[in-house]
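Task card 7
Instruction: Convert sequence to structure tokens.
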Amino acid sequence: MNPFDQGLAAALEYDSWYESTPGRAMLDAEIACLRPLLDGALHPRIDIGTGTGRFGAALQADVGMDPARSMLTVAAERLPSVVEGAAEALPFRDASLESVLSVTVFEFLPDPVRALAEIARVLRPRGRVFLGLIQRGSPLAEAYREQGLDPASVFHRARYFHVEEIAAMSREAALRVLAVRSSLFGLTGQGQALRIEEGTHSDAGFVAVALEKDPPGGVR
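Output:
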């Protein structure tokens, strides 16, 4: 069973965490980290793994997609349109989208390589991908890893990646990294945890990655 699809009450409880002080701080930091990368990105834009739609709404997604129906029920109140589906089998035509957003989703995908191939399939040439990732080895990822020792935790099956690993997988799908920004240094509440820096930093818990689909023949 999908650990994120436990009924509407659970989806609303999950969503309410973002109204807490730490939840709001992390949400704002992650959105602020991502938003400049999206400047100039075209529409239509899909948010893959939209959950309850908070990131998709803040970053102007046209469609939110998620395999969890209960989450989509909440997301439908925030987004213009929602659709049920999995990242590894996107329900969109070839070359039909200009940009794709996916925030803290790749950690939970059974097959991230397949997901990147599907993203590349539905993107138009020079289309953009914007990923938000919990970075492997960071204090934040370690805290989630410890939570995941409990089989009942949503983090139990989570996997974390370095930017370099995502870049290598992306190249297989003809996607190239354009820019990286970092935030959530250390843990929330510890000094400069919520600052935002350009580039990759090993102690950053959250990294925002912009990628572009290579045009046919690799001519840019």
